[in-house]
Amino acid sequence: MWRSILACLLLLVAVGIVRNSVKASAGSSSLVYTVAKVYKPLAWMHGAERFPSGATIFVVDASGKHVLLPEFAATADPAIFFDGQHVLFAGKRKSDDPWQIWEVPLSDGKARQITSGTEDCIRPFYLPEDRVVYARKINGSFRIEAAGLAGRDVLVLTYGPANFIASDILRDGRILFEAGYPLGSDVAPEIYTVYSDGSGVESYRCDHAGLKGAQASARAHHAGRQITTGDIVFASEAGLSRFTSARAQAVAISAPTGEYAGDVAELPSGEWLLPWRRDSKAPLQLVLWNARSSSLRSLIETPDANVIQPVVLAAHAVPNRHPSGLHDWPDANLLCLNAYTSKYPFAEGSIHSVRVYARDKANNASLLGTASVEPDGSFFVHVPSEKALQIELLDSSGKTLKRESGFFWMRRGEQRVCVGCHAGPETAPENAVPQILLKSTTPADMTGKQSASGGR
Amino acid sequence: MPVRAKTRWPLRRSARSESQNSYQGTLLRMPTWTRNACGFSRWDSYGLLSAKLVGIASVVLFVIAARPAPKQSATAIREQYLSPIEMLLSPDGRRLYVVCESSNEVRVIELETRRLIGRISVGRFPRGIASSPDGRLLYVTNSWDDNVSVVDATAMKVVQTLPAGFEPTGVVVDRGGTTLYVANRLSSDISVIDLKSGREAKRLLAGRGASYLAASPDGKWIYCTHIYPDPGTFRTPPNSEITVVDTGRQIVVERKRLRNVAGVFHVAMSRDGKLGVAAQLRPKNLIPLAHVEHGWAFGDSLSLFGPDVGDVVQIPIDELDRYYALPWGVAIAPDKAKLFLTTAGSESVTVIDVARLLHSVKTRHKPFANDLSASAAYVIHRIPVGRNPRGALLSADGKQLYVANRLDDSISVIDTASDKLVSTIDLGGPKNIDAIRRGERLFFTADFAFQGQFGCSSCHIDATIDGLQWDLEPDGFGKDIVDNRSLEDLAGTEPFKWNGGNPDMPTECGPRTEKFFFRSHSFTEQQLTDLVTFVYSLPYRPNRYRLPNGELTPAQERGKAIFERTKAKNGTAIPEASRCGYCHSGPKFTNQHQIDVGTGKPTDRSPVIDVPQLPNVAYSAPYLHDGSAHSLEEIWTVFNPNDKHGVTNDLTKDELNDLIEYLKTL
Questions:
Q1: How confident is the model at residue A220, as a pLDDT?
Q2: Where exactly does CATH 2.120.10.30 map onto chain A?
Q3: pLDDT tens string B228-273
Q4: Which fold has domain A332-445?
Q5: Hey, are the CB atoms on A430 and B260 less than 8 Å from each other?
Q6: What is the pLDDT of residues A350-359, one digit of tens each?
Q7: Using CB atoms, which residue from A173, A415, A426 is nearest to B473?
Q8: Closest approach of chain A CAs to the CA of B283, in angstroms?
């Protein structure tokens, strides 16, 4: 109720007053967004700078349009706290500072630094229980970390030789993030999820199987955001696409033609606020689109700069907290129910054993060990945690049937079960005791330790 | 009129008002966190001094609050809720009869005015309703009285009571109005009652937990579904069945096997008789419950049967990121265009396009019950309704769907052309929602599990058991397999969990459930208190094995003597700790201790098992901590080779039967 009242009040005094640059009304909503002369949305995939000429967060509210923090040399990546009263952002006090994560209450404008370090921290989001998630550059690559609002209790959430960047926090509590597909490549970004304790990493959908070369590079899913319906809307080769709860494949959104940068913001009216441009020569501008309309309405544009990353300044629901079930063990256990359950065809009885590899920072693979695969396709391995791991299936002659093209990781003390090898999230498990557990409840050790720990 | 009931309050904290509980909950949180007016937790970085003061005060209060409080009883006002569960329309479509499980009555609604025009008192816990072909008589099953009330629909009065089996639930009348078929949940059979004589003519063996019935349109067949799986081999997939009765010969002619299915609920037939639909759960109890995503705990689904599909076909109704928990009530539109399904845990109605569904069935050549993307091809709407929707009933013309919202005491009315909720009929239940009812709502909702996949009642069906054994993750994969335990009258049976690892119910239902079951943000302190209050309020169901006069039969007497014996048959003394009544002592027949009775398995981390309570033990098969004993007899004949679980190897088969007869009376 109070939200509606606030919205009505704002409607009376707000938007439309933002000088010449604002061409339409965002209804009753106050906004923040970023303006950048140069915007390279996928530069993070190579650990590079997305805003080589800097960036500035603007606010449009009842008092008009203004720079969020004029004293900062650069600001970008705004996110709003659940009460709608605080802005989390990546910022630089001085132009030669690294990007760091800051928070500013809208009430007093006094920014408070959350992260510190000599390398960039970017793309922050709020998590429940006063924690934040962001990407930190370490040795030239971005990894995702979570930390308390005071910057302490840092927890690394992503592992392995790749660049990772968060794009939203889902209502179910998972972190939506982006990385190359397959993990470790830097060809095309894909959308993944991970729990806020770094466990359970997986791609959001597995509709990429079989894509190679040009097909794979043409496919770029990025800047995904969850909207009210629960769908994930993202920039894609089709312009805009969505993942729905009901379907295993991305669904193209028939929006007006042009280039979209993802990062959709949903207004209370149901309209979408989108960074868009007619073609690659034009700068991105913010447009409003109603799904029932065939045209876009320009909202904010700047002739010589990109207007991007719109976020509605309003209270919103707190995502579910993930109660971490990680055990106090140094390693992890992985159970596969049936390796034959896969998007790849395997002849019945053909899978004989499984190898597990670890990949180092230079992306070199080293064999951790080999375990047998039971006739029902099940195997159970005890693996090192927080390392890039890769699975390879072998036939009885030791010939490779399939090797994972990317990698995955498991957190310290994580116990995980897979339906199969690349089964896809649409495949629920069959209810049967895996034969490997009837044989032994002790996993095959891939850690090189004499006695594996955890659940043994 | 509120009913005053005495409620035991087993929590370690004393009973207090909701606001007091909330206050305490805040204090017990980390002291440097505050809660602002919007309810968003934030770290107060600017108020260190105040934070320190709050911290010191909180520590002091924490110490005070954390002192164990003595167990005590609290007297609570128990509202008399209605709990509508099933419905029936009068032949002219003007009246809606609503079976109210908690108020032991049928409420009569005049649909034109949406007015309550009658309240018919029936027996305890009524669960099913049917009418004579002319609509003059109603038949209402009374699940706790093991009988059927015959109601004069005009006078709105009970005119006769018919006998049935244990816990009668579903009921149908044959086309001629001469025979009543009643599904008996606890005796797992179907009573065939001759309406002319008012006597039970025969009893047909059904599957375990026989509960719901539907007749074919021509009246030749009765289909029966079951809320528990049939007994099966340990650690193999559960199976259920649709029992088919030939009404001409009054015999069971077919048992349609439902593979890997446990709870099955309503069953419905299309008007052309070519499509049968049963709502069901496909549990994933045999794989480690390591996470919830990807349908890891349950597959909410339907079984289709009949000429339209050939053999039984199972189809999923869930999605990849959203689940429609506890599919319960089913209704098929008269023209077979749509199928309506209530999902009791998800508080919604799923609408399925039958033509698209049949197209999927015909074009997909492999089973697809585990394909979470399949429902996109045939589910056309999800309509939010009230809490814990159960029965679904279509008007004769199929234009309106009525849904019984069991925990809202209301009926949702859905326009089936637009698939939109058009109105809600308030049945006139209490407006005050007490702690037990709040807890009941929490128990039956799937809101708290990750992506809404399941709730407490997915395993504790109708607050009982599911007859399944689960492989929980924290114990290790494939280890410490656990049977689902009964929830009846739990006060005084602590600790919980088969190894006795959870000292009290808040521990059992709180962090453990959140972390290792729901895998998602779960109950607040207040909600947990309400939930525990509800769980502790669950009474024993009536024991059907005791004689009305309280005496024991000769067999029960002999069994009692065996239970209490101090000497083996060869005259040697049985050590005190090996006597039945040593561990199974006290009012609940448990000494609340943990002991090794030799029933541990190689996959158990420890053979030490919590002594289970015994009242109503007949209802909770299978037995032992891991459910490996199919029957009470197997506890001794298979799993007690060394007389470690009481001295029983000197007993004959007849003597074991006597012992069982006695145990059933507890």
A1: 87
A2: 21-312
A3: 999 899 999 999 999 999 999 999 999 999 999 999 999 999 999 9
A4: Immunoglobulin-like (2.60.40)
A5: yes
A6: 999 999 999 9
A7: A415
A8: 7
A430 with B370: Cβ contact below 8 A: yes
CA distance B187 to A33: 66
What is the pLDDT, as a whole number, of residue A186? Answer: 86
Buried/exposed B594-622: b ≥16 CB within 10 Å, e otherwise: bbebebbeebbeebebbbbbbbbbbbbbb
Overall average pLDDT of the B80-102 stretch = 97
For testing contact with chain A, the best of B477, B515, B605 (most A CBs within 10 A):
B477
Q: To which residue do tokens 């009530």 refer?
A: B329
Q: What is the helix (H) or strand (E) element at residue A144, kind and residue range?
A: strand A141-148
Strand blocks (E) in A45-85: 56-61, 64-67, 74-80
- The answer to whether the CB atoms of B45 and A149 lie below 8 A apart is yes
Tell me if B373 and A426 make a contact (CB, 8 A cut-off): yes
Give the closest-approach CA distance of A112 to chain B in angstroms. Answer: 10
What pLDDT does residue A413 have?
Answer: 97
How many CB atoms lie under 10 A from the CB of residue B57?
12
Which of B288, B373, B520 minimises the CB distance to A248? B373
Q: What is the ipTM of this complex?
A: 0.92
Contact A325 B282 (CB under 8 A): no
Chain A hits for B293, Cβ within 8 Å = 200, 425
Q: Which two tokens stand for residue B383?
A: 């309509």
Buried b (16+ CB within 10 A) or exposed e, B357-389: bbebbeeeeeebbbbbbbbbbbbebbbebbbbb
| Pairwise CB contact (< 8 Å): A438 & B478 | yes
Phi-psi region of B337 (alpha: psi -120 to 50; beta: other; left: phi over 0): alpha
- Among all residues of chain B, which has the CA nearest to that of A433? B286
| Nearest CA-CA distance, residue A144 and chain B, Å | 21
Q: From the list A419, A437, A438, which residue is nearest B294 (CB)?
A: A419
Q: Which residue of chain A has the CA closest to B449?
A: A172
User: Residue A238: pLDDT band by 50, 70, 90 thresholds?
Assistant: confident
Q: What percent of chain B has pLDDT over 90?
A: 86
Q: Residue A211 — pLDDT band, cuts 50, 70, 90?
A: low
Q: Say how far apart CA A211 and CA A236 lie, in whole Å.
A: 15
CATH 2.60.40.1120 intervals, chain A:
332-445
**pLDDT for A208:** 77
From B385's Cα to the closest Cα of chain A, the distance in A is 18
Nearest to B286 among A200, A249, A431 (CB): A431
* Strand pairing report for A444-445 and A379-383: parallel
For residue B582, the one-letter residue type is: Y
At residue B474, the pLDDT reads 86
Domains and CATH numbers, chain B: 86-426 (2.130.10.10), 554-663 (1.10.760.10)
Query: For all residues of chain B together, what is the average pLDDT?
Result: 90
Mind listing the pLDDT tens digit for each residue in B357-388? 999 999 998 999 999 999 999 999 999 999 99
Q: Do A112 and B45 touch (CB under 8 A)?
A: yes
Instruction: Name the residue among B288, B284, B268 with its Cα closest to residue B276.
Output: B268
Q: Do B321 and A325 touch (CB under 8 A)?
A: no
Which residue, among A324, A441, A442, would best test binding to B if mutated, counting the most B CBs under 10 Å from its CB?
Answer: A441
pLDDT on residue B53: 43
Tokens of residue A415, six digits: 């116990």
Contact A431 B237 (CB under 8 A): yes
Fold of A21-312: Neuraminidase (2.120.10)
At A380-413, the pLDDT tens digits run 999 999 999 999 999 999 999 999 999 999 999 9
